[in-house]
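Minutes, project check-in
Item: structure for the 112-residue chain
Input as provided by the requester:
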Amino acid sequence: MPLEVKDALAWIIGALVVGFLAGTLFAWLVASLRRTRLEERLKAAERQNTELAARHAEASSEAGQHEANAQALRTQLAELRVRVEEGSRSLAEKQELKGVHDEIKALRDRAA
């Protein structure tokens, strides 16, 4: 080995070690920053997921209320249809009775 290389060998090895340590430190810092960014994104996604879950629960609750209201309206509609049908039958009976009453009155008038 040449003499100049022997004298500089300690400096070369030191520079390599310092370069390796500096590269390792730089890589660690870059990885740490990336990890921090990924953790922030994860937290944001978790917050969004929680918000969406709450909105879904609220929408499900509203859907249940709307279904209950719809069922109540269907029940009312059925009851009103029955009442209208009964009213129509009652009206038809009254008209029939009025017709019979008018016929009886006409017969009495003729008989008198």
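Outcome recorded: DSSP finds one helix and no strands in the chain.
No further action items on this chain.
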